[in-house]
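Incident log entry.

Two folding requests arrived from the same account within the same minute. Monitoring flagged them as a possible duplicate submission, but the sequences differ. Recording both here for audit purposes.

Request one:
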Amino acid sequence: MPFAVYALTIGAFGIGVTEFVIMGLLLEVSADLGVTISAAGLLITGYALGVVVGAPILGSLTAGWPRKKLLMALMVVFTIGNLACALAPDYWTLMGARVLTSFAHASFFGVGSMVATGLVAEDKKASAIAVMFTGLTVANILGVPFGTWLGQAYGWRATFLAVAAIGIAAFAVIALFVPRDEAASVTQEEGGALEVLSRPQVLFGLSITVLAWVGCFAGFTYIAPILTQITGFSDAAVSPILLVFGGGLIVGNLVGGKLADRYLRATVVGSLLALTVSLLIMHFAIHDKVAAVIAIAVFGAAAFSTVAPLQMWVLSEAKGAGQSLASSFNIAAFNLGNAMGAWLGGMVIDHGPGLGGIMWIAALVPLGAFMVALLAQHVHRRVSAAQPA
């Protein structure tokens, strides 16, 4: 891979840390700002919804920008947002700073995916996306635990200052190593965006992404209480087990990218089926400690094996003007799935079969995504057969 792809990975790492590290600092934030833990938890929801809203807003405002210039500008927004988080005097300022930071998220991954695929040969495009998204997986394995420790030891504001420093580093390496490109026509970009978002295969891809990640986060959001209250692990054992989950994320991400380079549509369908099966396995495995640890690794691998194929699906179906906006929308779809998945898991706990039933209910959602993918395949074959040779 060209070094420019790894420069994008650094930016992805920083964004991954800032999105998820707040989960480990809810107690510190709530105590310092004088709010309840549930109110502090809304900082997670606010960020996810900010990603969804930020995709169309920034996509429209930056239509026609050179991609390198846009990536650097997004790192500036990211850095300022994290500095504002570190200096926030009250809860609502912190919420606003989190939303500001989240605006850079969808556009960075969306545009970064296009830049990464443009730097490599045709048969390595999905792998390039997977390498960039490795920054997100490493953020979960190393960045978030370190950021949590830093916040607990020196105050939660120190964590956001450290993440801002990552933003400065990412800005520097992108400026140095990502090649320049020409600005696109704003008129073509906006018109293309309107057209590309009406294409059936693009809409299929966005729908599949949302459904797949509703299932992922319905299960993952409540993995800690499941491990302690059902499996019987101690609180201290949760972090090492999550490292196992993170190892699965990295393996699944890279394998999914490799397979998608050769068999894109088959990999999308297969990874969705694997995710469904892994959640069903989790339902039974959580009653045994050894089986639970193994199943968590499989779940992590299956979950992230969907990422590069789904992103590549949308990119391949959105070729032409407006591709960057469609790509950003797919990143927003991932985060919409995150927010809806956490809500679904909470509903299962409060109004359904409870904590022990989350995994099998979560499995039903990617099963729905699997069915939508099969329908998309059928439509694709019919349209291809109807076209003249």
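Request two (distinct sequence, not a duplicate):
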Amino acid sequence: MHRILISALALGLAAGSAQAFTAINGLTVAPVQGGFEVVTRGADGPRQIWCAAAEYARQAQGAGGNDRLYILRGYGASLSESGKRGVVFTLHPDSELANGPRPGTDGNYSVSMRRVGYNLRTAHAEQFCADTFEDVWPF
């Protein structure tokens, strides 16, 4: 009986770690090879996607506010949920990715969800989560 209980507990912990994370704005984030994927609901834009990525990086990965989030794979077919779309991020870029564009590169201040290597500080991306509260509690 003791072995069964230990096996069940181990299986439960393994299954729990593979479950998707739900960000404050309702988007799901799932670990994928090389990083993690923010899965969209269809009409979500860059601000919602970056918010979810930052929240996951901080809460699930232990990232600090000055750590940078990099787009590893731009917006496209989801790797973790069939029939959906997503963006894959990483906190651990290779040397090429680490030199990717940032806000202001070439005079462009738009926040990308498609440009591989595009990156923001985690604290910057977290600021987009404020949109969630403005939708719920407008002042």
